[in-house]
Specification:
This protein is mainly α and 107 residues long. Helix content is 77%, strand content 0%. The chain has one domain (3-101). The radius of gyration is 14 Å and the shape is elongated.
Length: 107
Amino acid sequence: MIAVPLVASISGIAAVAWAGMPITAFTLAALFPLLGLSIDYVVFASEPSAHLDKTFIAIFASALTTTVSFAVLAFSGTPAVQFFAIPVAIGIPVAWIVMHVLKVDHA
C-alpha cells in the first residue's frame, strides 16, 4: 500500500507550503521519519493477526504520541526545528486516516 506513505508525505510538504514557509533541507529530511512510520503502520495493519483490533489501537497510540510530540516541536522558536516538525505533525495523522479510509488490513 504505497498510497498511505505517499499521501502522508505530500500532505506534510503541502502543509508547509500552505503555511507560507519555505521548503528547506530540514523539511525534506522530515520525510524520512514520516515515510518510515507510515510504512510501519501499513505493515503492522497488514500482518495477519488474531488480535487485529489491538494492533489498530497500538498503531493509533503510536500515531497519537508521535503527532503530539512533533506538534510541540512545531512551536519551537528555532525555524529549522519547525521546518522538520510540521510535515511530520501533519503527515502522521493523515497516514493513519488514509490507512483506515483505504481499509488496509489483512482480512
